[in-house]
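Hi V.,

You were right to ask for the full record rather than a summary. Here it is.
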Amino acid sequence: MPLPHQMRNMSLPVIGSPLFIVSNPDLVIAQCKAGVVGSFPALTARPAELLDQWLTRIDCELADYKAANPQAEVAPYAVNQIIHTSNDRLMHDMDVCAKHRVPVIITSLSAPTEITPRVHEWGGVVFHDVINIRHAKKAIEAGVDGLILVCAGAGGHAGTQSPFALVQEVRQFWDGPIALSGAIATGKAVLAARALGADFAYVGTRFIATQEANADQRYKEMIVDSSAEEIFYTPYFTGVHGNYLTKSIVGSGLDPHNLPARDKTSMSFGSGTIKAWRDVWGAGQGVGTIDDILPAGEAVARMPREYQEAKAPLCG
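Predicted structure:
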């Protein structure tokens, strides 16, 4: 199955994952100008009326940049929609996305059975987060255009399956676009994702440690100072399993090894006064390869060089 036409004019096959609170228009615009898909969760635009303003700004700035740089590879942007009963903004936010004809919608949690046809009406495409085969097949039944395999080591809400296993199993019944997530923070890792059979790498943590990211400076520095063994996997903070910086859990006064289990049906953005993403910070196991805080464009510019350097010995 060919790639969606919206996603062919890119400098590198990378989708910047939507980072709650962290992703904002500054980051998205910088990513798209650098030639990779920039994205943000609709719920980050608060109050809800702000979403229209954000999309207007992104549309206008990218259009102006394309006009001034006709040879540039400017990637499309994406908006993430959470399909869950706790998201009472979903219909409002989808109306705003329809108004702007958002090129890519990324859906999470429940299969986007009602979302996909609507996105197709305005010419957009839908990519859906999945962590296992069952979820992948449900998403395909819902008519999605692409799958995002959120594997072991990915930041935030993540699965437990190895990308080596999940990509190959999904490829047995799906020939459409796949984006792979899980400790991908360098051009070398992007090449590895492609070698496994993915069309895109799904990169999140690397973009938290950028100047444009709307993240606490301590958060950015903690990513630079952490290693893979300092990532802790727990459902405690939202009711869904996710990867978090151990130092941020300890810094919130909690013992990561003594957190009670929580039911997935009780999904929220925190427990008591401690909030996920605001107080306890998500990150993936790729933190060990991140050692600086850069402008997003520079972070992207490194990746093609690393990609080609890793590819050269294989081609020789």
